[in-house]
Amino acid sequence: MGEFDLIARFFTRPVRRAALGVGDDCALLAPAPGMQLAVSSDMLVEGRHFFAGVDPAALGHKALAVNLSDLAACGARPLAFTLALALPRVDEPWLEAFARGLLALADEHGCELVGGDTTQGPLNICITIFGEVPAGQALLRSGAQAGHDIYVSGTPGEARLALDALRGQLHLPAATLARLRPRLERPTPRVALGLALRGLATSAIDVSDGLLGDLGHVLKASGVGADIDAFATTDLLASSACHESATGQIDQNTLLQCALAGGDDYELAFSAAPAQRGAVQAAAAASGTPVTRIGRITQEPGLRLLDRAGQALQGRFASFDHFA
Amino acid sequence: MGEFDLIARFFTRPVRRAALGVGDDCALLAPAPGMQLAVSSDMLVEGRHFFAGVDPAALGHKALAVNLSDLAACGARPLAFTLALALPRVDEPWLEAFARGLLALADEHGCELVGGDTTQGPLNICITIFGEVPAGQALLRSGAQAGHDIYVSGTPGEARLALDALRGQLHLPAATLARLRPRLERPTPRVALGLALRGLATSAIDVSDGLLGDLGHVLKASGVGADIDAFATTDLLASSACHESATGQIDQNTLLQCALAGGDDYELAFSAAPAQRGAVQAAAAASGTPVTRIGRITQEPGLRLLDRAGQALQGRFASFDHFA
């Protein structure tokens, strides 16, 4: 099966929203008047971003989910994407499952595959995604202001707990792993929340590399610092991770590490003025996405982790400072 | 050096035409009113699209050139691009040279790097490019009509001759190889010609996989066939390849193969009405790009190669028929 048959068979579908889709030198997109196009690219490499042998349907889902998450963090509505795929060989069942997982999530978000490239090579998936956002309304990293609240969606750390359990570095009850594993393999991009936060959040980022590290990018772009309640997210994670068991089986340090620096969460971290607390919770409820207030933007630069008493957390967690 | 330092150091430059460039979750593009956005992705893999150890500046040039060529084939004006890069290791001199080659060509075309991704993995370069074209004016593969002339720009086959010489499969005088090698390693995307052909060409494609194979895509998309003068491009190639030597040193079959199916040309093949012959040559002259008339679109499907007498070419070249 040649390159062109492969595209036609697995990835070509009728054009819906684009002016022209797969099968010419370029796809043609026409953003609505007054709209800016939000664009993001992510590349996933076997062994680095996913295990060799991972379920191809889950991989198709995740490859698009991480890109949708970037649109969510800008408050952009998904429009279309391109897919470039390097494959060691043409494996039809694998491609069929990959396309199924990919296109199911695409359909869920009305996001159309408009073009791409396939080639022979070590397995590599590169998606570039396009969304629309009204000019001037995109959520940026640079808008955080001193005094604003800091929030995060969902329960950061669940994906990392699942990863550590799958790697054999941590024991989880089978039922807990079964519940957390989709957080790693089939993350839910927070697109609806991102749209609901337009005009409300003053900055936003998606949490892909770990909550504190990604917050550090916001602080740097905004020229501010932050006080973070270390236990706000850790308590959420503890409650999630110990759901199937009466006694907590994971030590507090592991929970802190996973919640604050786990990575692969694809949650949104954002700031908003304290006067908007009710509006933020209403946006969260309207989009069906739980959000938790985890700290406060400060004029003083740097990122400080606070314990339950509001005192600076000592010891190994001081090392998180280097992200700020 | 981490991912973020690498982007900042080698690839971040002040935003010019985009609303927002490198360094947020998404870049923001705002096409001008009435414009459609032309989008194309190409992935280049070591060992498949370029030799291991190729000059990184030439590789940076070529990675963008093949994408610009897709915009050219749609008659789109380059606007911006994203770069996703998998690298086995952070090699600063390599990255510096790659960025230099890439950004020099980008500057030449006013095409801005607005975002991307870097990761550790087998060397893989994925560029997604964006161009603007007035709504309804894009050059498509589907517009060829029976009776229209078929043209190609430049001299298809030069890149393949250089490739075969570098692989040791063909002898070329050193001066000839030195002249042809940049056609392989630093192709010139025909952006100016593509713009000049708006409203003039009835179909277009960029020649990346070989002239006849790519023409086959146009014929299929347009529901037509073609008679191709096999020697129109072959004579051009012979004249180019034998420029440094009084006697031709390359046999006719090799020249035919390279000219008609060599690949890696990044020339434009296009159709236009016979009444436009003067206008096509004027567009070619205005864009500084030679074009040659090589055949005619037919109602009868299939692609026929004709000899100098206008008779069907017999023998091994009949095999080109399968492209149609």
Helix and strand topology:
The structure is a homodimer of 324-residue chains.
Chain A: H1 3-11, E1 27-29, E2 35-45, H2 56-74, E3 77-87, H3 92-108, E4 112-120, E5 124-134, E6 149-153, H4 158-166, H5 174-185, H6 191-196, E7 203-207, H7 211-222, E8 225-229, H8 230-241, H9 252-261, E9 267-272, H10 277-286, E10 291-298, E11 302-306
Parallel strand pairs in A: 3-4, 8-11
Antiparallel strand pairs in A: 2-5, 3-5, 6-9, 6-10, 7-9, 8-10
Helix pairs in contact in A: 2-3, 4-5, 8-9
Number of helices of chain A: 10
CATH superfamily of the largest domain in chain A: PurM-like C-terminal domain
Structural class of chain A: alpha+beta
CATH class of the largest domain in chain A reads: Alpha Beta
Low-confidence regions of chain A: 318-324
Spatial sequence of strands, sheet with the most strands of chain A: 7-9-6-10-8-11
Just name the CATH architecture of the largest domain in chain A: Alpha-Beta Complex
Q: What is the domain total for the residues of chain A? A: 2
Strand content of chain A: 15-25%
Assembly type: homodimer
Largest interface: A-B, 62 and 62 residues
The CATH topology of the largest domain in chain A is given as Phosphoribosyl-aminoimidazole Synthetase, Chain A, domain 2
- Overall average residue pLDDT of chain A: 88
Measure the end-to-end span of chain A.
Answer: 50 Å
User: What portion of residues of chain A is helical?
Assistant: 25-40%
